[in-house]
Each structure stands twice: as C-alpha cells, then as structure tokens.
Design a protein that fits this description.
- The protein is an alpha+beta fold and about 350 residues long.
- It has one domain: Jelly Rolls (Sandwich), CATH 2.60.120.330.
- About 25% of the residues lie in helices and about 20% in strands.
- The strands form three sheets. It has an eight-stranded mixed sheet with strand order 2-3-11-8-13-6-5-4. The chain has a five-stranded mixed sheet with strand order 1-10-9-12-7, with no helix packed on it. Strands 14-15 form a two-stranded antiparallel ribbon.
- The radius of gyration is 20 Å and the shape is globular.
- This is Isopenicillin N synthase.
- Belongs to the iron/ascorbate-dependent oxidoreductase family.
- InterPro entries: DIOX_N, IPNS-like_FE2OG_OXY, IPNS-like_sf, Oxoglu/Fe-dep_dioxygenase_dom.
- It holds the Pfam family DIOX_N.
C-alpha cells in the first residue's frame, strides 16, 4: 500500500524571545507530536548562511577526482560519494542518492584529544582551489554550536532540569559536533523501487540543526509502526533552522511518551503537556525521517551534536520512577556512535 503523504505543521520557536516559559511549552508540544520544530532569530545572518551554501556548492561542483582526494577517513572526516551511506537497508535497493562532506571539531595531531575517534584534524580542500572555504566552514561550525547551546537550555528546562544541565563538560562542554554538507544531484526518488535521496532513519545523537535551501524533500513519519506509514513533508521556512531530537536524547528521556496528539485540540494538548510534566513523564521522541528527491538539485547542511566521547548516556533522574524504570541500559557515547556509523556507511576498503 502506498505511503500517505501530507504537510507537517511544526512549532516555531523564537530563540530571541524573553518569554522562556512559552518557548519551553512549544518545545514540549513538539516533543509530543513529532520531535521536529523550527527555530528563528537564532543569531546567524541570512547573508552568512547564503555564503555558506555558496561555498558548499563550490565544493560539490569540483570534479569527482578532486573530491575523491578528500575521501572520508576512519575518523569520519571528508567526502562521502553518492551511494556511500545506506540508512534504510530493509527498504533501499542501493545507498542514498546524495554526496556529502564531514567536518568535525578541529584539533592538531599533537593534541592528546586528537586520538579520540571523533576528534582530530579535518580534511580540507586546498586554499588555491577553494579560497576561504575552510575559514567559512570553521566559522559556521562555531556559530551553529552556539545555536545548539541555546536549544539545549530549553530542552533541559523541558525535562525539569537546570537550564545549564547540558553545558557540563561531559555533555556539551566537550561535544562531538559534526557539520555535514549534503548535495542531492536531482535524482527522482521512487520508494516502490527502493530509491531514496536519504533512506528512512532517526538521527544518532542529542540534537540536529538543519539548514536547507528552498527545495523541499524532507519528510517525517511520526508513527513508524503505523500501517500504512504516514509521511509528512517538512517545508523549508525562510531564515529558520529545522531542529530534530536524536536517539541519545530519547534514551536520556526514557522514551516514555509515544502519544500522538495531532487529532486533539490545541488547548487540550497544552493541558496534557502540563499534566504529564507534573508527573515527571518525559516527552522526547526520536522521529523517523527521510529525503525524497523530486528531480531538483538540493543542498542541505545538517549539524549533528552529541555529548563527549566518555559520556555515559542513561536515563535522567527526572524521567524515571518506581512505576517507570529505565527502558535502556547505560551506553558510552563513543561506542554508540561508532556502531551507528559502521552500520550505515560503506567500508572504506571498498574504495581501494
């Protein structure tokens, strides 16, 4: 049976608003409904975002042999060719019809922390080929991290924690933060033939901050167990980021609340938020999403933020009780991420 498709209506959170309780309420509703929301007034200018997208396009316009010189290494830095990533092996005939480029936190090789799996030097195009490219991406990486810190404070408040909870060294004090440039070449997806721009998946970590161009393609499925699955288009919102919550946050918050309130009145849904909040029921959902190509070239820039390598992800105190014990065993962030990357990316030896 064919997927049912409609347009998703996501909450929009103004990060410059002084009305924190309203922002937290909107975030809680988003967690109840889809785990996706928009953020506006985030502090990154439209002019700079346009420059970042221009520089991204400049890289993907290079000849393939130039891009392959920067092929993704064992630290997951660098170029990923079309079909390199396979996010939904059950339904995909081949890998994703997109190419990408990973940029992590830059550390020199002689830094002791550079030996960690997701730290170290990045791979960069030569400056004579793409002048100013590295500087642009490093600046955007820093600015995007500041936006995520603002969002993390709202998430902490939504989980009945102190606002600075995620600022601790083991969380976002020493994060694993990966910027990924993506380019969809214009292939038309066909789910009936297992062809996708990006297969259905949920993100691995804490938060993903997504910048998109004006081309649609992103879809979410609020209930992955529904038959048939209902896929909703997420429309680009000019000047806004799309934010979604990842698997680690779902583990932290105990994945208790899986209720879908979309059929309820807005007023009743707000009442439910406060009732469940008072009962220490956590509302995070890590939602299935995918990208379908429609024949148009498309660029997007997700920014994936995870806690530190050594962070042990386990149920938060505010998200468990005698009647509601932890649903997941504790797991070290580094181990979890390595397994997820191994499961979804091509073995580098295949390129030799």
């Amino acid at each position: 049976m064919a997927d049912v498709k409609q347009v998703s209506k996501l909450n929009c959170i103004d990060l410059s608003s002084p009305d924190t309780p309203t922002s937290v309420s909107l975030l809680k509703q988003a967690c109840m409904d889809s785990g996706f929301f928009y953020v506006t007034n985030h502090g990154i200018s439209p002019e700079f975002m346009e420059h970042v997208f221009t520089q991204s396009k400049n890289f993907f316009d290079l000849p393939l042999d130039q891009k392959m010189k920067l092929l993704r290494n064992e630290k997951h830095r660098g170029y990923t060719p079309v079909l390199d990533e396979l996010l939904d092996p059950v339904n995909q005939l081949h890998g994703d019809h997109k190419e990408g480029f990973y940029i992590g936190i830059e550390l020199p090789e002689d830094d002791p922390e550079a030996q960690r799996k997701f730290y170290g030097p990045n791979l960069w195009p030569e400056s004579d080929i793409l002048p100013g490219w590295r500087q642009t991406m490093e600046k955007y990486h820093q600015m995007a991290m500041e936006v995520v810190r603002k969002i993390a404070r709202l998430i902490a408040l939504a989980l009945d924690l102190e606002a600075n909870f995620f600022d601790r060294p083991e969380f976002l004090g020493r994060p694993i933060a990966v910027l990924r440039l993506l380019h969809y070449e214009g292939q038309v997806s066909d789910p009936t033939k297992g062809m996708y721009g990006a297969g259905a998946h949920s993100d691995y970590g804490l938060v993903t901050l997504l910048a998109t161009d004006c081309v649609s393609g992103l879809q979410i499925c609020k209930d992955k167990d529904a038959k048939p699955q209902v896929w909703e288009d997420v429309k680009p919102l000019k000047g806004a980021f799309v934010v979604n919550l990842g698997d680690m946050l779902e583990r932290w918050s105990n994945r208790i609340f899986r209720y879908k309130y979309s059929g309820l009145s807005h007023c009743f849904a707000v009442i439910l938020v406060f009732i469940w909040s008072s009962l220490n029921i956590c509302l995070n959902r890590s939602t299935l999403h995918r990208v379908l190509g429609n024949g148009q070239e498309r660029y997007s820039i997700p920014f994936f933020v995870e806690p530190s390598h050594d962070c042990v992800v386990e149920c938060l105190p505010t998200c468990q009780s005698k009647l509601n014990p932890p649903k997941f065993p504790p797991i070290k962030c580094e181990e979890y991420l390595l397994q997820r990357y191994q499961d979804t990316h091509a073995d580098l030896r295949t390129y030799n």
